Amino acid sequence: MLTTELIKKIRRIEIRTRRLVDDSYAGEYHSVFKGRGMEFDEVRPYQIGDEIRTIDWNVTARTGEPHVKRYVEERELTVMLVVDASGSENFGSVNRFKRELAAELTAVLSFAATTNNDKIGLLIFTDRVELFIPPRKGRRHVLRLIRELLAFEPQSRGTDIKLALDTVNKILKRRSIIFLVSDFLVPAESFQKELTVTNKRHDLISIDLHDPLEESLTDIGLLALEDPETDEMIWVDTSDANWRDSYKLRSQLLEADKNRLFKSASVDRIHIATDEDYTASLTSFFQERARRIRR
Q1: 61, 163, 222, 293: most buried, per Cβ within 10 A?
Q2: C-alpha distances in angstroms, 11 versus 14, 37, 92, 123?
Q3: What does the radius of gyration of the chain's CA atoms come to, in whole angstroms?
């Protein structure tokens, strides 16, 4: 249901993200995500500076004048947003929930894609496929995706990244760009194989969301911690320095596992926190990709 507050939120996201796309990301997106190849466009008379290898010798022989074949990039791409809607995404201690951050990030990517006339689709998952919207073009379609990301209420709260990737591989028959948006708070081995397979078939980019409180806690006395996916609750004493060190260590080990996972699968990773301005992280990603392409 489109409430007044939801309409305002969608509008705010559209205004902010379209401005970012128009100012920065449309050109960068185009430069780092190429089309599927080159397709024939026309035959035209030879001009000084044309490469000899492009000469169409049949037309040249028939007309008596040199002609060349002209090719253009087959630009149209398909972008699939694969977004985690499990219970842990409804968490955020600073500024916004991870779910809201995911909606804004995918809005930027969607508007960049539609500016380049690409198709955008959406798959929302938990430990099941909650929603699938086939790839289409246009601003109205992008606004629908943003609305679903903000308002959709999943039926489950668990996380199954393996299922999400398997589903995408069955749905997408041609090579596509896939943005996998999650906090990846699950064992790496549960989806490592599928991550590698998907990246070989498509261009897979992970967007890893996290919150500062998931990395470390200060001394605030007794604290109730609840698992948003299982409802399990425990009380902890944050004044215990040993417990705080153990909590931080677990976070560091998880981070190390994720680094190894994405590196071994050759998957680009954009790491963004709920208290950060994501524009710097996205800009860094596009710039690093562009440098690799030039090399």
Answers
A1: 163
A2: 5, 36, 22, 22
A3: 23
Quick one: tokens of 160? 């199954």
Q: Write the secondary structure of 162-200 as one string of H (helix), E (strand) and C (coil).
A: HHHHHHHHHHCCCCCEEEEEECCCCCHHHCHHHHHHHHH
Comparing 51 with 88, which gets the higher pLDDT? 88
Q: What is the pLDDT of residues 236-277, one digit of tens each?
A: 888 888 988 998 998 899 999 999 999 999 999 999 999 888
pTM metric for this prediction: 0.81
Q: Which of 275, 266, 277 lies closest to 198 in space, CA to CA?
A: 266
- What secondary structure letter does DSSP report for 55? B
How far the first Cα of the chain sits from its last, in Å, is 49
pLDDT in tens, 118-130: 899 999 999 999 9
- Of 206, 221, 203, the closest CA to residue 36 belongs to 203
Q: Are residues 60 and 172 in the same domain?
A: no
Parallel, antiparallel, or unpaired for β 119-125 and 78-84? parallel
Q: What is the number of domains present in the chain?
A: 2
CA 47 to chain centre: 42
| Same domain, yes or no: 61 and 205 | no
**Collapsed DSSP state (helix, strand, coil) of residue 273:** strand
Gap between the Cα atoms of 287 and 74, Å rounded? 23
Domain span holding position 88: 4-32+79-294
Q: What is the DSSP letter of 249?
A: H
Residue 59 and residue 160 in one domain? no
Q: Give 289's pLDDT tier (boundaries 50, 70, 90).
A: confident
Q: Both 176 and 63 in a single domain?
A: no
Segment holding 44, helix H or strand E:
strand 37-45
